[in-house]
Amino acid sequence: MQEIISVKDVTKKFKEVVAVDNISFDVNAGEIFAFLGPNGAGKSTTIKMLTTLLWPTAGSLFLSGHDVMKEQDAARKIFGIVFQDPSLDDELTAYENLELHAVLYGVDKKTMRQRIEELMTLVELWDRKDSRVKTFSGGMKRRLEIARGLLHHPKILFLDEPTLGLDAQTRKLLWNYVKKLNESEGMTIFFTTHYLEEAEAIADRIAIIDHGKIVASGTSEELKEQTNTNTLEEAYLSLTGKTVRDESVDSGDNMKAAMRRVIASRTRR
Amino acid sequence: MVLSLVQPLVYFLTLGFGFNALFQQAGRGSYIQFVVPGVVAQTILFTSIFWGVNIMWDKQFGFLKETLVAPVSRLKVMLGGSLGGATIAVIQGCVLFLIALAFGFHPYSWTMLLLTLVVMGMLAVTMVSFSGGIGSIVNDMQAFMAITNFLVIPLFFLSSALFPLEGVPKVMKAIAYANPLTYAVDAMRASLVNQSHFSLTTDLSVMLGTMLLLFYFSIYRFKRIQA
Q1: What is the CATH code for A3-267?
Q2: Neighbours of B163 (CB within 10 A)
Q3: Could you please report the per-residue DSSP string of A191-257?
Q4: In chain A, what are the domain boundaries?
Q5: Mean pLDDT of all residues in chain B?
Q6: Which B-chain residues 57-86 have CB contacts (< 8 A) with chain A?
Q7: pTM listed for this prediction
Q8: Which of B41, B13, B208 lies closest to B122, judged by CA?
Q9: Residues A61, A49 contacting (CB under 8 angstroms)
Q10: For residue A268, what pLDDT is reported?
Q11: A104 and B70: CB-CB below 8 Å?
Q12: Interface TM-score (ipTM) > 0.85
């Protein structure tokens, strides 16, 4: 098997805060790869570096052999991404948002029309195609964004917590479709999620990141074996501990964060 | 779009008609003729300087990420965006010009209007680029407004938009000479009413230089946006 994503000794610092601390990993072509970790562990930062949005402080990243820093345009042609937070143009209609995406990615007109209809039907938004995005609910925007990420059938698809805030039905639809794309087109899927059962059900391989370091990786079976546990959730908790994390990495507020953690753990009991 | 025309229009009407008699007494001809090129330049300046807000906005609302990861070079994105912004500014300038016509302004030659259009376009691209560069750097509205206001007001008042450069104190003259907007206004005046302080060649070369420099600045900053 050939690796399509390759991360080598990558570190990312935001001023003094180390968000990603010297990580290395490979993802093989055609694989479904889950990237798990607590809030603020460095998942999104890693995805942003892989998708040319952030520059690493040190190390290098390759997509299909292209250095994402030196050959940005070549690297950008390879992937599609569904961001964690909204990135739609609110003033455009749902259809126009997808149309713009298709133009940016050079999808030809005929394929474009066909796929937009197919995808919008899939995410059950076809009847709302001419409504402006600003009239959509959070879940609808999310679904539209997923449809957009799938539109140009990339070689690699990055999904940053794609199912956050979606109902069980839509989640199921989404994963089935992603799985289908993976099988029929050999699309490599790289996703993050907080729903461990999703990772267990769909991912070929899993990496767990915590405090900017990869603490374990392998198949779900291997992770369970390594930690001597029965479910992926137990394995995950035994690797990352049970304390609650802050969403943002904020070294100056250690005291506050520690107190919040204490309060959080007490209210949970 | 209509609102942003109000300010230049007020300048044109009050200053134009207010100072007209005084200006004529001083033997300088019609102040309306003199000030229209300045006010058209102002319209373009004040419209295009805000274009960068779009970049900042898209950055904040996340939409820019979609553009940034697309396999389209950032040069093209910036070029497309700023030409769009510049077009709007030029149209605004033309609208003001038409209003001025209705109020009795008359260009000295209709064919020279083509040159006016070129000058307007260059000024618009220059300011839109500057604005786009600032929009790429800053992340909040307050900072953007502070920077642009801090620069745009002195830029306008210390150019030759409202008064002739002959006979002003030396310091002011020196500042006006260092102000790129002076040359744009001067070129505009040369093409509209055939009055100028510098030669057209000087005007156009300074404008071209400033435009290229600021366009480079905007691309340079836009490429460095990290989201």
Answers
A1: 3.40.50.300
A2: 20
A3: EE-S-HHHHHHH-SEEEEEETTEEEEEE-HHHHHHHHT-SSHHHHHHHHH-SPPPPSS--GGGHHHH
A4: 3-267
A5: 90
A6: 58, 61-73
A7: 0.80
A8: B208
A9: yes
A10: 46
A11: yes
A12: no
